[in-house]
Request: fold
Amino acid sequence: MDKILRFDMGAENGPVCREEPLGKYAGMGGRGMTSMIISQEVPPLCHPLGEENKLVIAPGLLSGSAAAQSGRISVGCKSPLTGGIKESNSGGQASQVLARLGYAAIILEGKPLNDNLYKIVINKNGVVITENNDLKLLGNYDTVDKMKAQHGDKIACISIGPAGEMKMAAATVAFTDMEIRPTRHAGRGGSGAVMGVKGVKVIVLDDTGMKMRPPKDPDKFKEANKRFAKGLKRHSVTGEGLPAYGTNVLTNIINEAGAFPTNNFSSGRFDGASAISGETYAELETKRGGRPTHGCHRGCVIQCSGIFVDKDGNYLTKQPEYETVWSHGANCGISDPDLIAQIDRLDDDFGLDTIEMGATIGVAMEAGVAKFGDGEAAIKLVKEVGKGTPLGRILGSGAAVTGKVYGIERVPTVKGQSMPAYDPRAVQGIGVTYATSPMGADHTAGYAVTANVLGVGGNVDPLKPEGQIELSRNLQIATASIDSTGYCLFIAFAILDQPDTFQDMLDVISAFTGQELTADGVTALGKKILKSERDFNFQAGFSSKDDRVPGFFKREPLPPHNVTFAVTDEELDQVFNW
Amino acid sequence: MDKILRFDMGAENGPVCREEPLGKYAGMGGRGMTSMIISQEVPPLCHPLGEENKLVIAPGLLSGSAAAQSGRISVGCKSPLTGGIKESNSGGQASQVLARLGYAAIILEGKPLNDNLYKIVINKNGVVITENNDLKLLGNYDTVDKMKAQHGDKIACISIGPAGEMKMAAATVAFTDMEIRPTRHAGRGGSGAVMGVKGVKVIVLDDTGMKMRPPKDPDKFKEANKRFAKGLKRHSVTGEGLPAYGTNVLTNIINEAGAFPTNNFSSGRFDGASAISGETYAELETKRGGRPTHGCHRGCVIQCSGIFVDKDGNYLTKQPEYETVWSHGANCGISDPDLIAQIDRLDDDFGLDTIEMGATIGVAMEAGVAKFGDGEAAIKLVKEVGKGTPLGRILGSGAAVTGKVYGIERVPTVKGQSMPAYDPRAVQGIGVTYATSPMGADHTAGYAVTANVLGVGGNVDPLKPEGQIELSRNLQIATASIDSTGYCLFIAFAILDQPDTFQDMLDVISAFTGQELTADGVTALGKKILKSERDFNFQAGFSSKDDRVPGFFKREPLPPHNVTFAVTDEELDQVFNW
Reply:
């Protein structure tokens, strides 16, 4: 993993690619790699859909090795949704495969001089770029099926659906899972639209003939890795809750906490929660012959993904994630698990961020475009997006644009990006993360739900402002680091609660790289990444005024706790004052 | 004019109104009044369509007096289009009438608790607010007709069309002209949407029984006013060009200068310019029985407005302004004067900013929604806006949102507001104004076309960056002052070129107020207003990065001069460094 593959998609005689040494980016991986490249190479004031923007895809530092749980891959760009820097990461197979092929990053630059759509194939023999206009406007599923037919079943695909080709701000970059299905997505921020601008429909990776990346100290690595995996198994979240029910284990928990945003953030509790809970889905999947416990990539020990089958036992989609169940469910007043799964399939196929889409449909419902609770209407709306009708283009542009188009004030976004599945009034720590993360409203950027609700890594009262700044700050710093390793963020549950598991993680990385990593080193890396991201945003025109939640969260009390967001602006401005 | 009328549209038992003394706003008028009230009373981070925003309508300092040319009225709010402070001003009769009724400002606050639409009637007996839901979604023309039927033909109306009711960011506030037609508009920035949020469909003013506002020194005032009017008649622009052809005298001039934005700012010259020039319109109007020379309010000596009639001699609309002819004409590749007049009528009736709409349709054409030059398609698109279809709502949200929805990079906006009819590459001074005005891209905020193209107030090479900062700065300061007086900005041509006419203007104001006004006083007022507006925007999240033109103006050379915008970012940051 000592090379960068740089594609000039706008070259005069058609796209070209060259291999480069890592140079100044040596030692970076995942989010560290994407944010360094974007902040150093992309003009902050450029148009996100212009030739000056770049799309960077980078496996984590440990990806491609035998390290458990190291299959995350980062996608970076200037975001068409937020206008700021973006790192969105995903599971799936691509990270391991790309790393084994030796590439620490793929950079897509420029803009094709015509309307051609390209396929890029990368294997042990090198890189082939071909015009592939017969892929135009295909869904991710059909695209991947064609790739399997052309390139066999040892591949991993990185692709965009029609949403990305149509340059929608809610468009994702899709990654295939172990079954070579496009179920894992770098969802947030519209990176799929940037890939669409670059004219790349799909990148096919095949690591046949390549070897697992070797650690510097194999014995120490193996031992530490084993201890680390055991640590994950030992923690109740990563060892029990997530394997049994997937991320959707959270529906009942967050609903009980009164923080489950319902009907476009009008209440924190949803009557239909139990019908769409992880427990219900797992039962349904087991009964029908699906799988509630499953890994999204090789080397996963948590196994929080799953397979959802329809009433006839046929594969429909992956087990919908908690965020999807919330966004298309409670947030739109919908409590039909089959219907939510159908929308999940559509989102994955069109290449749409499920969080942004559910939040957007919630805003559209608030505007009277459809009624809260009307599942059939919601499906129709998502189909409009796939077709690219005017209404579909509005929705595909995300909640902030939809709110503008319909003249709606109650739009739950920060920096133009929709809030995920935790109301910031009832989980004030996550509100701090939403407000201040350089990514826009993003739960993964500093998952304060841990200490606020789950009792992981301490306890901080979720309904009060006290302690939230420090909590969010520390989590944002740690997360920026973890997102650089390739480790799935879910390891955080175990390393926050179990000091020995944290040390095991440091040992794994140290043994792999041959350089001793300490807790201070983790913090320093996180701060460096956040600083580069904040600097980019500042140069792109952001100010402290963008680090705020919308006014209605400060005015409207949220049932059942009847609380408003109480962290002051002055406190928010201290998050990065470390 | 020593009172403020403040309406609480959100009061529990329905809207109420109270009269207030001027208090700290004494001595302010027009833009000075609106910007002071907005910057002191509206939370900068509030949602433009929320209850915290306010709509302020203020006549100029001289309005309601016998001062020639003093009929401008200002509308202020936090703009739904730009997110910053907005002052948009208009001609028509309302300014004189409201001033004679004694009101220096109307302030609309809050938000009705239900969906009711209100009519406000103000006359010498006081104020009456009535529910008037039968006006819902009526065009401005029908609304005004109903008001005439109910309140006689001595009235002046301030109203919104369906666009304002639908809270579209391109919605205007309409003002009736001398024939009580809704042809004059506070067009820029979506103030009509804010009036829509306040639930006010129309304000009917009747100054029957009220007197002209008396000057402190009647003799001096009368003399100075006479000299001032003569000065206007003496200047070639205000005494000849504007009366003969209206503002559209500029089409041939700006096209000749290679600065007439064509096909969404792709060229500075339009083949069809002569077919839509002021000369052509005047000839057509004269032949058909319309009027090329006409005033938009009593007391106008320039007479730049006009009346456009159709082929059968029936009134269709006012003589389309230069900006309208450009936006719906050259910018969309359309050269049919009748068709442009039809669109002008639709825009006025729906209550839409003609600049924003033409620029938006240009962007939609760039996106492939219709073809450049297809006039029938353009009419259909405007009708979609009136109907509020999804496509219509996209377009009614303005060019920036339309560009986002269609994934288009070439969007000619600053701070979310469309550029008017001068390409910033071929008139670099106006480019500086577009970039830096607190209003977003706005030609009237600092009309550098004077010295850049017209040879008024000096000569500054339009194609080069040298001297543009000083030119724009001085004009922006002077304009903020003039926009406070009620004077029509077109007096600037004469006062820039004729020192005696400038002194006459100072004498008129001094004689009216009884306080000696000097050139330094004009400058001080302008700076004070600009500072309050810049401060508001800063608190609303704007930074120097918002004072920029889009990247493509710096990259794409504009035919026929093949120039790019060459004023540097560092220079732009000096505009307000006085």
Remarks:
- The mean pLDDT of chain A is 97.
- Chain A has two domains: 3-206, 224-572.
- The interface with chain B takes residues 43-47, 49-50, 52, 80, 166-169, 193, 196-197, 389-391, 393-394, 397, 401, 404-409, 538-543, 545-546, 548, 550-552 of chain A (CB under 8 Å).
